[in-house]
Amino acid sequence: MALSDDQLDRYARHIVLREVGGMGQQKLLGSKVLIIGAGGLGSPLVLYLAAAGVGTIGLVDDDVVDLSNLQRQIAHGTKDIGLEKVLSAQQTVADINPDVKFIPHSERLTRDNVQQLFGEYDLIADGSDNFETRFLINDACYFLKKPLVSAAMLQFEGQLSTYKAYLGAEHPCYRCIFPAPPPDDVARTCGEAGVLGALAGTMGSLQAVEVLKELLDIGQSMSGSLLIYDALYSDFRKVRVKPDPGCPLCGKTPSITSY
Ligand SMILES: [Zn+2]
User: Fold this and answer.
1) How far is ligand 1, taken at its centre, from the CA of residue 127, in Å?
2) Burial of 57 (0-12, 13-18, 19+ CB in 10 A)
3) How far is ligand 1, taken at its centre, from the CA of residue 136, in Å?
4) CB–CB of 174/112 below 8 Å?
5) Of 46, 59, 162, 209, whose CB neighbour count within 10 A is largest?
6) Which of the following CATH numbers is that of domain 17-171+183-239: 3.40.50.720, 3.40.50.360, 3.20.20.210, 1.10.10.10?
7) HSE (side-chain half, CA atoms, 13 Å) at 191
8) Percent share of the chain, pLDDT over 70
9) How would residue 242 be classed by pLDDT, with cut points 50, 70 and 90?
């Protein structure tokens, strides 16, 4: 479908980019992305993907907006306290870009609904806040062959990568790098250990950039690399990560055969 006059205006700064152009913008408008979590990472993600004209955006979260969320979860405002996060985000997205078809999934991601939810989308963006969900997302993306763009953060540090282990070869999965949840005393949540609010903006925006790159198939994918950002020392490190032959999911003798 050709771009309308309004769309040519709205996306003009994309269209002049050689790597995007009118064709790329149409590709974004035809893309379907599912975001897990409407919190610190999910907020900038949903705002930038909506502004970029990703045509269909789904958001999964079963939580309601709390006053303590507003220090970093910028898709929600003070007036939204008590409202379901997916509905609050829906209002924000509608305000930013009416081109976007926004699908609120007001539920918790579980083994029972993951296949049906992921099946509707081209790409999954993980902004969840616990390891159990991260492993479930990783495993489902592997079996359903969906690219996964994943970010995480705690206190002053953030991590980012893309996982496409279903391609084999040089593409690790999340379990290759993080084989097991850390012990309880290390696996602290942002609620317990704290997080600098603006770090969520940095990591969620980096994640949005990687999502757009994957959808447009431009530049170098983050698959096979892990980006680590230390905000206190303003240090970005990009390290090479390889598949683990002993990985229980994508290794030589997998023990995980479904999600
Ligand atoms: Zn693996």
Assistant:
1) 20
2) buried
3) 13
4) no
5) 46
6) 3.40.50.720
7) 7
8) 98
9) very high
